[in-house]
């Protein structure tokens, strides 16, 4: 029997016990960020790379003091990048910031309204980054052909959206995800769109290697409680996937035997 | 001497290395990364890297994001 607490998965040669990856954006303050991430049990935590504030509050707490890189695997993202060039620049700065660590979350966006991935720029950036030695976890659309190409290029994980970033609409197209999963040669993680615990469970029941989320936790009424709920949802979904669900039937099938009735 | 620092003009009153600039900005000891004219300058080279007129510097750090 599989012990869900010993059900590790591997990204770029490193084993992780938790299949829930979380972001650090949109929290009320650093303390809430810290508490939510702790409650989620996540080991991989995303951050964004931005200009330091010059001349303002040099004493304000640094995110990496709250989420220390010696305890968490920091996954810098390229959020806000709309061109391959900007994404590559961001990854190189992130690698310098994180003492040469190569793991990045590549996302190249197409427009502000949808934050849908620009897959052409994403592929261009992935090519450059892989050549430059990065381990690229790539945010992409739920197009199975693009997902396959990104894996073939050498991305270490493919992360299709379940719904638009920050939308909380859940798994909008489970059928595309199923095709992506059937063909997967690298870990496939749902990234974006999860709104509540059942969405995360559904992603895992479909067979995803993991789920990455931010807003679903940070914008819950009680983020720390939602973080814990998400931890359980990912475990529950993973367990159900491994256990194998029953067949769906149109008609009832009694759970209590009909034999031996006395009336 | 004037440089561009994180997109804004910034005047230096003397010759400075990147280490001097970081100290001048009160950012010593902070986790940051620096790009000089679109090239990363590794931390080990900050103290030997002198700034020149018109240099474009980006100083970045990690913030919350998904």
Biggest interface, chains and residues, is:
A-B, 36 and 27 residues
- The radius of gyration computed from the alpha-carbon positions of chain B, rounded to a whole number of angstroms, is 12 Å
Supply the helix-strand structural class of chain B. mainly beta
The total strand number of chain B stands at 5
Strand content of chain B: 35-45%
User: Low-confidence parts of chain A, pLDDT < 50 over ≥5 residues?
Assistant: none
Query: What series of H and E elements makes up the topology of chain A?
Result: EEEHEHEHEHEHEHEHEHH
> N- to C-terminal separation of chain B?
38 Å
Largest sheet report of chain A: 3 strands, parallel
The radius of gyration over CA of chain A amounts to 20 Å
Please state the oligomeric state of the protein chains shown. heterodimer
Given the C-alpha coordinates, what overall shape of chain A results?
globular
Can you tell me about this structure?
The complex is a heterodimer of chains A (263) and B (66). Chain A is built from 9 helices and 10 strands. By secondary structure, chain A is of the alpha/beta class. Chain A has a 3-stranded parallel β-sheet. In chain A, strand 1 and strand 2 form a beta hairpin. The longest helix of chain A has 21 residues. The mean pLDDT of chain A is 95. By secondary structure, chain B is mainly beta. Chain B has a 5-stranded mixed β-sheet with strand order 2-1-5-3-4, with no helix packed on it. Chain B is globular. The mean pLDDT of chain B is 95. The chains are: A alpha/beta (263), B mainly beta (66). Chains A and B meet through strand 4 and helix 3 of A and strand 3 and strand 5 of B. Strand 4 of chain A pairs antiparallel with strand 5 of chain B, so a sheet runs across the interface.
């Amino acid at each position: 029997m599989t012990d869900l607490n010993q059900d590790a998965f591997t990204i770029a040669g490193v084993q992780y016990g938790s299949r829930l990856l979380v972001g650090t954006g949109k929290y009320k303050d650093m303390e809430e960020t810290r508490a939510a991430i702790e409650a989620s049990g996540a080991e991989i935590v995303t951050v964004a790379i931005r200009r330091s504030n010059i001349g303002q509050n040099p004493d304000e707490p640094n995110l990496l003091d709250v989420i220390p890189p010696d305890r968490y695997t920091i996954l810098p993202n390229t959020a806000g990048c709309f061109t391959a060039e900007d994404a590559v620049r961001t990854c190189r700065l992130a690698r310098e910031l994180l003492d040469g660590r190569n793991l990045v979350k590549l996302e190249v966006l197409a427009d502000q309204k949808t934050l849908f991935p620009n897959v052409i720029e994403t592929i261009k950036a992935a090519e450059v980054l892989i050549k430059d030695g990065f381990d690229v976890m790539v945010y992409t659309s739920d197009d199975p052909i693009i997902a396959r190409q990104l894996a073939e290029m050498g991305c270490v994980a493919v992360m299709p959206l379940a719904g638009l970033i920050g939308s909380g609409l859940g798994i909008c197209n489970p059928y595309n995800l199923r095709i992506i999963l059937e063909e997967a040669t690298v870990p496939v993680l749902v990234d974006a769109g999860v709104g509540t615990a059942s969405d995360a469970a559904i992603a895992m029941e479909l067979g995803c290697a993991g789920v990455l989320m931010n807003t679903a936790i940070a914008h819950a009424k009680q983020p720390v409680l939602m973080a814990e709920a998400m931890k359980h949802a990912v475990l529950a979904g993973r367990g159900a996937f491994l256990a194998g669900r029953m067949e769906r039937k149109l008609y009832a099938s009694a759970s209590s035997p009909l034999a031996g009735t006395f009336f | 001497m004037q440089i561009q620092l994180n997109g804004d003009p910034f005047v230096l009153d003397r010759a400075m290395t990147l280490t001097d600039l970081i100290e001048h900005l009160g950012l010593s000891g902070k986790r940051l990364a620096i790009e000089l004219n679109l090239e990363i300058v590794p931390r080990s080279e900050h103290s030997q890297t002198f700034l020149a007129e018109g240099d474009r510097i980006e100083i970045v750090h990690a913030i919350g994001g998904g």
